[in-house]
Backbone:
């Protein structure tokens, strides 16, 4: 299920999501594995997406 992510979701799942972003078999452009974009960039983009009205950050949850 896709849900709109909130600030607390970034805190809870951010490290896991960043790990996925570093893996080229699980992510796409823009890549964070090239050493140009940083972990700080990743979290800045996520936080801006949560705060802006014109954008949203989606979180996939597998309900079991």
Residues:
């Amino acid at each position: 299920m896709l849900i709109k992510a909130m600030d607390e979701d970034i805190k809870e799942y951010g490290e896991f999501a960043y790990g996925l972003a570093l893996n080229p078999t699980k992510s796409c452009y823009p890549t964070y594995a090239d050493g140009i974009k940083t972990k700080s960039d990743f979290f800045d983009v996520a936080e801006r997406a949560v705060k802006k009205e014109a954008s949203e950050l989606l979180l996939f949850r597998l309900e079991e």
The first strand starts at residue 2 and ends at 4. DSSP finds two helices and two strands in the chain. The two ends are 11 Å apart (CA to CA).
